[in-house]
Amino acid sequence: MTSPKAAIRVGLVLAFVLTGCMEHGAIKTGADNPLTVEGLTPSVKDKHAGLVAITPGFEITKYKVIAVEKFPVTDTAVKDSEDRQFADKMSGILQVELVRRLRDSKLFEQVVNVGDGQYAASTGQPTLRLQGVVTRLGRGDRALRMWVGGGAGAARTQAEMRFVDVQAGKVVMATADRRIAKIGGGSSDLMGEAYDDMARDLGRFLMRLSRGEAPQD
User: How far apart are CA 73 and CA 91, in angstroms?
Assistant: First the structure.
């Protein structure tokens, strides 16, 4: 006959196994209070980019170069040195993922990671500069995600991007994308997956724009 303690141990093991088998990663959710930049407030829902605002006449296909900056983290919840180190690390990962996915899209002749010495201030070609901020960054609690579930201990992040026409010196498009990770392991892994998903979906959105498709939910 199984003792109560043994039954509890078995139950915990099964819960751990089942949790490990569940889908990891982050899900898209509605952006929280998106910023207004040069009169553009992301408000049109899109299935890939989150919320979007586009200036009239913007054509992604005319740009040959895009330079991707590292986004500062502005979440006021980031306070101590450990939080700041985590924020800096995640911001770097987001920049790398954006560069990689934009290169994969083949939309641009050149995709530059600003800060690695590749970017010249004037390329002589129509150029976009991808800037932005991470306005939400919360690591959540791994133990709560694993053992409680239902959204407890969820990790969260929100990236707000603006595309600047370098020659004109103005913002031509803005987006706001928020992700929440309820299931999975460490916060760094979850954030890495969230930023990979963000970058992948941004590439998909830009590809749709290049084909003349409008933002759609």
Answer: 7
> What is the pLDDT confidence band of residue 10, given thresholds at 50, 70 and 90?
very low
What tokens were used for 156?
């969260």
Cα dist from 181 to 73, 88, 96, 100, 194, whole Å: 18, 19, 20, 22, 8
Cβ 70 vs Cβ 116: under 8 Å = no
Maximum C-alpha span of the chain = 80
Does residue 146 lie in a domain region? yes
Cα(31)–Cα(207) distance, rounded to whole angstroms? 22
CATH code for position 133: 3.40.50
**74/158 Cα distance (integer angstroms):** 10
Q: How many residues does the chain have?
A: 217
Residue in 72, 79, 78 with CA at minimum distance from that of residue 35: 72
* Secondary structure class of 37 (helix, strand, coil): strand
Any domain includes 15: no
Residue 18 forms part of a structural domain: no
Tell me how many domains the chain contains.
1
Q: Which domain holds residue 153?
A: 24-210
Strand 170-183 with 25-29, pairing: antiparallel
Q: Rounded to two decimals, what is the model's pTM? A: 0.82
Angle between helices 187-210 and 81-105 (to 10 degrees): 30
177 with 31: CB under 8 angstroms?
yes
Residues 143-189 have pLDDT tens digits of: 444 444 444 456 789 999 999 999 999 999 999 999 987 656 667 78
Q: Does residue 1 form part of some domain? A: no
